[in-house]
Every structure is written in structure tokens, then in C-alpha cells.
């Protein structure tokens, strides 16, 4: 069940990963830290930002973006600059990648990373395209 998150936890993740998350993604996550998303072919569980407000939130956010990205980077074909933001529970990930002109800023575009082949496929211009409102 998604719930709001304080922006300070997003800033902490940005510092740990040495990136800046895109504005629309941050806006969505501040309102609902985690939740579900859907692409044409799959349903996804969005990773939350690690929320250390209390024990309940720590427990609910233990599969956070920083941890899941570090785990995904252990795969041989996971893009080294990608940030994992969601899983389909089959090994594939939705990822954000850096902008062409600034490696520290993540693009709003969302990509499907195929764990079996390492291929990336753009699936949305931004997070709003994947969330039912």
C-alpha cells in the first residue's frame, strides 16, 4: 500500500546513487511512495524510497530503490548507469537512465530492462503514463 514520503528521503537516495530523479517521478513518489504501474504487456511494483520515519515505514520500504538498484547492478547485463524503479517479479526491471547531456540527471523516460537479454526498450515518456489516476 503506497503512502506519502518526505522529500528528504528522496534526497538521501539521490546522494547515495549520485543522481537526480526527474521531477514528475519525485512528485508521484512524494504523494505515493511505491505502488503499482502498468505497461502494455506487464504489471509492475514500484520500489519505494527508504523511509526511516518509524519501524512500520522501515519495514514497508525495505525493498527500496537504492537497495534494488545495487542488487540489479550485480547482473552482468544491467546498465551500469540505470536506476531500478520497479519489478515485474520475473527478474525484469523498469529503469530510469541518465540524460544524454547530463549523466547526473535522470531522464523522465522509463525503460523496460529485459533481464535475459540486457535489452532496453522505452515504454513511457514519464511515470504518469504508467499510473492509473
Q: What level of helicity do the residues show?
A: 25-40%
Task: Please tally the helical runs, counting DSSP H or I stretches of 4 or more residues.
Answer: 4
Strand order, largest beta sheet = 1-2-3-4-7-8
Describe the biggest sheet?
A: 6 strands, antiparallel
Query: Mean of residue pLDDT?
Result: 94
Radius of gyration: 14 Å
Shape: globular
Which structural class do you get from the secondary structure elements? alpha+beta
| Uncertain ranges | none
Question: What is the first-to-last residue Cα distance?
Answer: 15 Å
Beta-strand residue fraction? 15-25%
Order of helices and strands: HHEEHHEEEEEE
- Count of β-strands: 8
Characterization of the model:
InterPro entries: Knr4/Smi1-like_dom, Knr4/Smi1-like_sf. This is SMI1/KNR4 family protein. Residues 4-132 form the Knr4/Smi1-like domain. It comes from Flavobacterium quisquiliarum. Pfam families: SMI1_KNR4. It is a single chain. The longest helix is centred in the first third of the chain and has 11 residues, at 7-17. The strands form two sheets. The protein has a six-stranded antiparallel beta sheet, with helices on one face. A two-stranded antiparallel ribbon has the order 5-6. 29% of the residues are buried. With 133 residues, it is α+β, with helices and mostly antiparallel strands. The protein is globular, with a radius of gyration of 14 Å. It is built from four helices and eight strands. The chain starts with 6 loop residues before the first helix and ends in a 9-residue tail after the last strand.
Amino acid at each position: 500500500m503506497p503512502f506519502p514520503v518526505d522529500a528528504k528521503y528522496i534526497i538521501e537516495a539521490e546522494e547515495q546513487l549520485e543522481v537526480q530523479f526527474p521531477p514528475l517521478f519525485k512528485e508521484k513518489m512524494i504523494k505515493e511512495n511505491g505502488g503499482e504501474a502498468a505497461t502494455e504487456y506487464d504489471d509492475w511494483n514500484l520500489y519505494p524510497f527508504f523511509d526511516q520515519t518509524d519501524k512500520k515505514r522501515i519495514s514497508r520500504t525495505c525493498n527500496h530503490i537504492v537497495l534494488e538498484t545495487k542488487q540489479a547492478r550485480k547482473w552482468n547485463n544491467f546498465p551500469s548507469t540505470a536506476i531500478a524503479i520497479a519489478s515485474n517479479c520475473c527478474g525484469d526491471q523498469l529503469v530510469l537512465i541518465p540524460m544524454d547531456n547530463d549523466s547526473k540527471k535522470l531522464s523522465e523516460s522509463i525503460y523496460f530492462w529485459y533481464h535475459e537479454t540486457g535489452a532496453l526498450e522505452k515504454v513511457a515518456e514519464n511515470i504518469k503514463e504508467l499510473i492509473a489516476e
